[in-house]
Amino acid sequence: MKSPIPMESASALIDERIKELGDWRGETLAHLRKLIHDADPDIVEEWKWMGTPVWSHDGIVCTGESYKQIVKLTFARGASIEDPKKLFNSSLEGNTRRAIDVREGEKINEAAFKKLICAAVAENSAVLAERAAKKK
């Protein structure tokens, strides 16, 4: 099993990805990254699957992928969290994940996005606690 990339290196790789993109996608990913850290200052940045930015807290919160037409944030447990402002607009048919696709020029409801991040962290923590209780 490969050892994980140290957090400092993962953050540097995410910085590099943002710089590499060099267009609206890089700006969007950087903005979303800032909102993620604003919502949860304890979130950990990781670099997985040969080049995917990942934000984790008690498990994966979300990934940040960039494609030609979209920046996609996929929430690992998105199907389990409330989304009253209907930010999830992709991967809606699955039983586990949900995603937010952001297209060029689109603005995201920042307050609702931060609440989704907090809800995803709370869901991860609840699952972790449940697993720990089962082991007792």
Number of helix segments? Answer: 3
Helix-residue proportion: 40-55%
- SSE class: alpha+beta
Poorly predicted runs are none
CATH third-tier fold name: Aspartate Aminotransferase, domain 1
Please tell me about this protein's structure.
The chain has 136 residues and is α+β, with helices and mostly antiparallel strands. The chain has one domain (7-135): Aspartate Aminotransferase, domain 1 (Alpha-Beta Complex), CATH 3.90.1150.200. It is built from 3 helices and 5 strands, in the order ααβββββα. It has a 5-stranded antiparallel β-sheet with strand order 1-2-3-4-5. Strand 3 and strand 4 (70-75) form a beta hairpin. The longest helix has 26 residues, at 110-135. The two termini are 28 Å apart. The relative contact order is 0.15.
Topology:
Layout: H1 7-21, H2 24-39, E1 44-48, E2 52-56, E3 60-66, E4 70-75, E5 98-103, H3 110-135
Antiparallel strand pairs: 1-2, 2-3, 3-4, 4-5
What would a concise description of this structure say?
With 136 residues, the chain is an alpha+beta fold. The protein is 42% helix and 21% strand.
Features:
five-stranded antiparallel β-sheet; alpha+beta; 136 residues; 5 strands; Aspartate Aminotransferase, domain 1; single chain
